[in-house]
Specification:
Length: 83
């Protein structure tokens, strides 16, 4: 099955949703290449980047599920080529 490399940018504004977010990331962990989080304490938010190599449906599924969580915003960008 073809996979794509994608970057999911996540902004967490509600710390109460972090547990649900981490559960989703654990569920999709076989497809996650890397994760970086930056707490922005002055603004009370966290910025997280997730790099994935997965089929398109897995990437969009994770991004959509994360975006439905309260206080979490996501944006996904995809590589141009299928790998």
């Amino acid at each position: 099955m073809e996979t794509r490399v994608a970057l999911i940018g996540i902004i967490v504004e509600n710390p109460d949703s972090v547990g649900q977010m981490n559960a989703l990331l654990h569920e999709y962990s076989p497809h996650i290449i890397g994760r970086m989080g930056v707490p922005y304490r002055e603004k009370g938010i966290s910025i997280i980047s997730i790099v994935m190599d997965a089929p398109m449906n897995k990437i969009s599924s994770l991004s959509g599920k994360l975006g439905m969580l309260d206080g979490i915003t996501t944006k996904t960008i995809y590589s141009r080529q299928n790998l």
